[in-house]
Amino acid sequence: MSAFSTKDQCDLWSPGSRKDSSFDVRDNLFHVEGLKESTGPYSSMVEVQCIYKDSHKLGDIEPLLQNFRSIVSRLEVIDPGKLSHEEKLAFWINIHNALVMHAFLSYGIPQKTVKRVYLLLKAAYNVGGHVISANVIQNSILGCRVSNPGKWLRLLLSSREKFKAGDERRTYAIEHPEPLLHFALCSGNHSDPAVRVYTPNRVFQELEAAKEEYIRATFGLKKDQKVVLPKVVESFAKDSGLLPAGVLEMIQQSLPESLTRSIKMIQQKNSHKNIEYVPHNFSFRYQIMKELVKCLV
Q: Which residues contact 102 (CB under 8 A, 6 or more apart)?
C-alpha cells in the first residue's frame, strides 16, 4: 500500500482565475524584476494557484482516481534497481512530482513552514516493497537538494533518510549526480520549474530543454545592467561547478537573439558582480504542460 488512503483524494485543482486557465504571453510569470514578458512554452502553461474541496464533483473524476490508484499500486512490484541510469532518471523524476502533487491533494496545502517540510517526509509510495518518500527521492536516490522552506529542519531530518550499508534501496539510486535535475523536480512552489513527463530515451534532451525554457521564463535584466536569476539557477551552477562567466554564457545560449547583445555587454564587465540571485518563492503554485492537464484536473 502507498502512504495514501484509497479515498483520500477529495480535493480538486483550481487552475487560477483566467477563463482559459493559461498564461497570457505578456505575464511576468515569476515576478522577476526586469522581466517584461514571458516567451516560449511557459507562456502557455496552465497555472494552479490553489486546491479546493468539492465533494459534488468527486464523482465526475472517480474513474481518473481509480486509474491513478491502480497505477500507484503497480509500483509495489517494480524493481528500480534493474533500470539503467537514464531509466532511473525519468522514472524517479516522474514519481517525485506525482507523489508531491498527490500529497497536496490528500493533505491540503500546509500554511506553516514546518508542516510543509514534514509533508515531504510523511508522504510516500511503496516502490518495490520499500517505503519511498519525496525526501528520500531527492536526497538519497537523485542526490539533488532542491530549495525548500525550513532548510535547517530538513537538513536535520534528512540524515534519517540516508541509505545504510546493506539497504536494498541503495540500488534505486542513480549512478552519478545530474545537476539538470534542478530544472525538473517540482515541490509545488511558485519558483519551481514546470511539471512535465520525462521519457528514458530522451531524458537528457528533455532536461536540457527544461533548463533553457526555465531560464528564458525567469531571466531578468535591471536598469543597472545586472542580470537577475532565481535560486534554482544558482543551485545548478554550484552543482555544475560553473563560474559567473560560465553562467552568463549559459544564459546567453538560452535566450532569444534579441537579448543576447545585453549579455555580451555584461560579459565584458566583472561577471560575479553582475549576477543577482533572487530568493526562492515558496508560496503554492504549479505550472503544468497543457497536454498533462486532462490527467490532473
A: 4, 9, 72, 123
8 confidence band (pLDDT: 50, 70, 90): very low
Q: What are the extents of the domains in the chain?
A: 11-211+280-296
Q: How much is the pTM? A: 0.84
Quote the percentage of the chain above a pLDDT of 70.
Answer: 76
Band (pLDDT 50/70/90 cuts) for residue 237 is very high
Cα–Cα distance for residue pair 70/40, rounded to 1 Å? 35
Q: Which three cell numbers stand for residue 294?
A: 486532462
Q: Which residues face 284 on adjacent strands?
A: 189
Is residue 31 predicted with pLDDT exceeding 50? Answer: yes
Q: Are strands 275-278 and 227-230 parallel, antiparallel or unpaired?
A: parallel
pLDDT of residue 152: 63
Cα 225 to Cα 17: distance, rounded to the nearest angstrom: 34
Query: DSSP code of 139?
Result: I
* Amino acid at site 63: P
Cα separation values, 31 from 144, 170, 190, 210, Å: 25, 40, 10, 19
Q: Is 241 exposed, middle or buried (0-12, 13-18, 19+ CB in 10 A)?
A: exposed
